[in-house]
Amino acid sequence: MAEPGGVIELGSDFALIEWERPPPPVWWRRGWALIGYAAIVLLLLGPGAPVGLGPVVPVGAIPAGGAIAYELSADTLFAAWFAFRAPTFGAAETRASQATLDAYRLSDGQLRWRVLIPVDLGSLLIRTAGPDTVVVSSLDLGATGDRTVAYDAYSGRLLWDSRLPLLPAVEPAATVVLGAYLDGDGEPAGSPYVQTPGTGTVPAMLLQAVGVRTGAVAWSLRVPRGYATALPVVPAYPGRSGAAYAVLIGPGGEARSVDLHRGTVTGTGRVRSGPTLLVSGHWLLSGYPDRGVNTLASYRADTLAPAWTGTVRSLDLAVTECGELTCLTDPEGTRAVDLAAGETRWTAPAWQPVAMLDGWVYAMPQQGRGGPDSLLSPASGAPVLDLAGWSLIPGMAGSQYLVSAGRPADQLGSAPTAAWLGVLRASAAGLPRVVPVAPLSGSRVGGCTAAQPFVLCDAGDQRLWIWRLRA
Predict the structure, then answer these.
(1) Which of the four pLDDT bands, split at 50, 70 and 90, describes residue 236?
(2) From the CB of residue 130, how many other CB atoms can be counted at a distance below 10 Å?
């Protein structure tokens, strides 16, 4: 087997990748059915609506059994797989495991390259950085040695490695931002997104940004022991990346804000730290008990200027951007707060917002309530569309695409045989509706992701199926 980080010559290894072209859907083979289908879609879209989506074209399937992580770029699927090495007789550890990273060309599913990843398994992340770089990182608390590696996306050549794990909430751009708590010897320990400092003194932390192609250190910041650090939350459905700040708060409340893309201090001030401490978009939120009352204070993340302070039912909060508002969800429901004005604009006891979808709030039922996902009005929180049978596809910036849960849309009046791709469109009244675009070959299509113009779904049969949206 190749040395970790080296490109594995394909040859016999290539035989492990079984490329299969899926059968065309039934409507593809029936000309009159296709004409009827197109007429129905045009009718649903209405006059003057864009018609450029067209049906989807099946591309192929990739065996997905054992895949532990994958990521899409504009033209490549990167997938990490378990790769077990033969045990050594008499060794203390009889079976060691690593992973390989495979790069598949999305246009035809062919394997471009394969490398053995020189990082420990566990909480493995794959991130693309522009069109030419892919970054792999382990957030595993027990990981040792290299924690992050970067490869050339076209050749699999190792570009650089680091002993620090990736900060998953900061999208790689010109730099890749890394960070970890430090142990007593000053060596990298756990990721701040995985390791909980506990009730004692917060350990020191190292934050560092390196050049995406070179690995050269662009800036480095050591956070002293005893400082609390607020980092950006990881969104449930990543979309467009934006500003990212870390706020460092000393034991006496002295604080400074750091732009994680540039490594520059953007603001200083005083912040009362508490058990809830996070950055959501342009806001720093700190939750703490005050004379027996749960209190949440907000500050501008860049300047640390104080904003809204109010009481909350619980400090166990999920925070999501809801358009211009910030949605705070606890076990009893959601309230949308205008942090700049200090006003609660609406409440939604039944819903937990998780993302924005084409200007609408994509929300799931509160835990234990059951029922379908819905779109809510960002202005009032009122449900405007019941998404029964449809779920969001992450991966497309400003995504408008959804996929049905193994059945076509009711609008077409067909039997529930295959999953369907749908697109969000506005009705004449300005409200959202789902328009079916085309069936996805095969049934039981599960979790999907996308990178324009490709859609990739786990079909539930150990394969990842790929379709291309035809212009």
Answers:
(1) confident
(2) 13
